[in-house]
Amino acid sequence: MSSLFNNRRSIFAPVTAFSFSSEQAQECADYILKRSTHTELVPVSDVGQLTLTADGRLAENSYRFNILGFTAVCAAVSGGLIRVFGEISGESPSKILSAAEYSIPSAVSIYNEAMRVRFELLRERNLLVDHGARVVDGFLGLNHRLLCNYDFFSAIKAEMESNVPSAQFYRAELVGREFRVYIIDTSNKWTGAFNDSTHTFATGWYFCNREDSGQSVKALPCLYTRFGVALGATGRKNSLVHAGSDILGRVSALISKTFSNTIDLTPLQARLFALKNFKLGFTEDKDELAATTKKWIAYLVNHGAPKELAKHIVRNTINVGADLQPRDPLDIYTQKVLAERTGYDLICSVLRNARNQPTYFREKLQAIALELLLPKKKKRKLGGD
User: For residues 314 and 300, is the Cβ–Cβ distance under 8 A?
Assistant: First the structure.
């Protein structure tokens, strides 16, 4: 019974994910344009628009929320509502409970009652609806100004052609309504650090827009590596919120400004030499290995990495690091391999583990990686100068 329950379908619509390669720029544009034609912002004026049936569908039209849209509604009603809903419905199952101890209708009843009590807090906000998929993807505030991903992509292409003729579309990722675009500067690559050409570094730019929340548009220079993309840190100068007049015009100006800012690869050779020669201090001795592991976990946490992620990254540094091919598991914990692990192995593990994290943690790790690869002069450097 437990196995069947854990594999049941969620009551929420899935958050779809797509990736577009460097040869699929047109396919990307076509897809997000088609999606935009099915998208509508629907003002909330009646409690019936948010009422759920016993199976979790909207009573008004049988549409479904995805988890992101539903979480946004719950957050507006009460901070703890999504947790209660997940625990009672089984959407966030506990290992110690059986299927008989969950009830979707009961969770729906709790949500409906809380939503009705707090409905005045929700009135006149907007549902982000995909009529093609019959899904509610988001719940947006009164001041939100929708910037559709197609217009965002068009602005990137226009500014790229105008400002950086050597730049090219590299890839794009669409996760739900979060759209990430990667542009590469084909004239600014560097392969001098390694005999293995797979360690090529190249500069470019990263752009991100979310249609389903008030989070900011982001536009940042980036560094492409074999193990992932390192980014600058997000701040007021490289982001905009979805509010105010002429958002598309302001976003276009931000994109144009970003294309004029690129990462200087000049210090990279000396920096990589220092990183490759900086030993992390791992040994075969069990106590010494534990102490050194703890030290580097604390180092990453001090730079802003979540502790559990930092633990995983340091273990990955020991086991994989900058290796391009897997090693024999029996050889990893030998003195030879452990003593070889360097600052560069740590950075590669940071980037490798950033890839599949939620947006905030992914960008945090990618910013940590760039800071370690090309630190600011006043910052303490891993591996020294």
Answer: yes
Rounded Cα distance between 47 and 116, Å, is 7
What residue spans define the domains of the chain?
40-140, 149-259, 268-373
**Contact indicator for 269, 385 with CB cutoff of 8 Å:** no
Across the chain, which has 385 residues, the per-10-residue mean pLDDT values are: 42 94 96 96 96 96 96 95 94 71 92 97 95 96 91 97 93 95 85 54 94 87 93 88 91 96 87 92 93 96 94 95 81 82 95 91 94 77 64
Residue 244 has which token pair? Answer: 């105010």
Angle at 222 between CA 376 and CA 260, to 5 degrees: 90
The CA-based diameter of the chain, rounded to the nearest angstrom, is 68
Task: Count H helices and E strands in the chain, helices first.
Answer: 14, 11
Q: In a 3-state reduction of DSSP, which class is residue 4?
A: helix
Q: What is the pTM of this model?
A: 0.88
Enter the tokens of residue 371: 């800071």
For the record, the structure tokens of 142 come out as 């009164």
Pair type for strands 126-130 and 135-140: antiparallel
Q: How many CB atoms within 10 Å of residue 6?
A: 11
Does residue 159 contact residue 259 with C-beta atoms inside 8 Å? yes
Find the radius of gyration of the CA atoms of the chain. Answer: 24
